[in-house]
Task: structure prediction
Amino acid sequence: MCCNCTVPRLSLLGIVLEDIPQFVLTCYIDYNLIGSLSPAGVLNICSSLSSLVVRLTSRYEEVQDENDDKLQPIIEFAM
Result:
Protein backbone atom coordinates (compact mmCIF):
# COMPACT_ATOMS: atom_id res chain seq x y z
CA MET A 1 0.00 0.00 0.00
CA CYS A 2 1.34 3.42 -0.90
CA CYS A 3 -0.03 5.19 2.16
CA ASN A 4 -1.41 4.30 5.55
CA CYS A 5 -5.01 5.32 4.78
CA THR A 6 -7.47 3.49 6.97
CA VAL A 7 -11.20 4.02 7.35
CA PRO A 8 -10.90 6.08 10.59
CA ARG A 9 -8.19 8.27 9.04
CA LEU A 10 -10.19 8.85 5.88
CA SER A 11 -13.23 9.61 8.00
CA LEU A 12 -11.18 12.15 9.96
CA LEU A 13 -10.16 13.83 6.70
CA GLY A 14 -13.76 13.75 5.49
CA ILE A 15 -14.96 15.56 8.60
CA VAL A 16 -12.44 18.36 8.08
CA LEU A 17 -13.18 18.70 4.37
CA GLU A 18 -16.90 18.68 5.08
CA ASP A 19 -16.85 21.62 7.51
CA ILE A 20 -14.28 23.96 5.95
CA PRO A 21 -16.62 25.15 3.15
CA GLN A 22 -19.27 26.06 5.71
CA PHE A 23 -16.86 28.35 7.55
CA VAL A 24 -15.61 29.90 4.33
CA LEU A 25 -19.10 30.49 2.93
CA THR A 26 -20.38 31.99 6.17
CA CYS A 27 -17.48 34.45 6.29
CA TYR A 28 -17.72 35.22 2.57
CA ILE A 29 -21.46 35.93 2.65
CA ASP A 30 -21.32 38.03 5.82
CA TYR A 31 -18.35 40.11 4.70
CA ASN A 32 -19.86 40.74 1.26
CA LEU A 33 -23.33 41.67 2.54
CA ILE A 34 -22.60 43.45 5.82
CA GLY A 35 -18.85 44.06 5.88
CA SER A 36 -18.35 42.11 9.10
CA LEU A 37 -19.64 38.95 10.72
CA SER A 38 -23.31 39.09 11.64
CA PRO A 39 -24.61 37.59 14.90
CA ALA A 40 -26.18 34.77 12.87
CA GLY A 41 -22.83 34.11 11.19
CA VAL A 42 -21.03 34.03 14.53
CA LEU A 43 -23.66 31.64 15.90
CA ASN A 44 -23.27 29.43 12.83
CA ILE A 45 -19.47 29.34 13.15
CA CYS A 46 -19.53 28.71 16.91
CA SER A 47 -22.06 25.89 16.74
CA SER A 48 -20.29 24.29 13.78
CA LEU A 49 -16.91 24.64 15.45
CA SER A 50 -18.06 22.93 18.63
CA SER A 51 -19.60 20.11 16.58
CA LEU A 52 -16.41 19.81 14.55
CA VAL A 53 -14.28 19.50 17.68
CA VAL A 54 -16.52 16.76 19.12
CA ARG A 55 -16.52 14.75 15.89
CA LEU A 56 -12.77 15.17 15.34
CA THR A 57 -12.07 14.08 18.91
CA SER A 58 -14.10 10.89 18.56
CA ARG A 59 -12.48 10.01 15.22
CA TYR A 60 -9.00 10.85 16.53
CA GLU A 61 -9.57 8.47 19.43
CA GLU A 62 -10.45 5.74 16.92
CA VAL A 63 -7.18 6.39 15.06
CA GLN A 64 -5.24 6.29 18.33
CA ASP A 65 -6.94 3.03 19.35
CA GLU A 66 -6.08 1.60 15.95
CA ASN A 67 -2.42 2.58 16.40
CA ASP A 68 -2.33 1.17 19.94
CA ASP A 69 -3.67 -2.16 18.71
CA LYS A 70 -0.86 -2.37 16.16
CA LEU A 71 1.83 -1.65 18.74
CA GLN A 72 0.80 -4.14 21.40
CA PRO A 73 2.06 -7.62 20.64
CA ILE A 74 -0.06 -10.60 21.53
CA ILE A 75 1.85 -12.81 23.94
CA GLU A 76 0.57 -16.18 24.96
CA PHE A 77 2.19 -18.05 27.79
CA ALA A 78 2.21 -21.80 27.85
CA MET A 79 1.97 -23.39 31.26
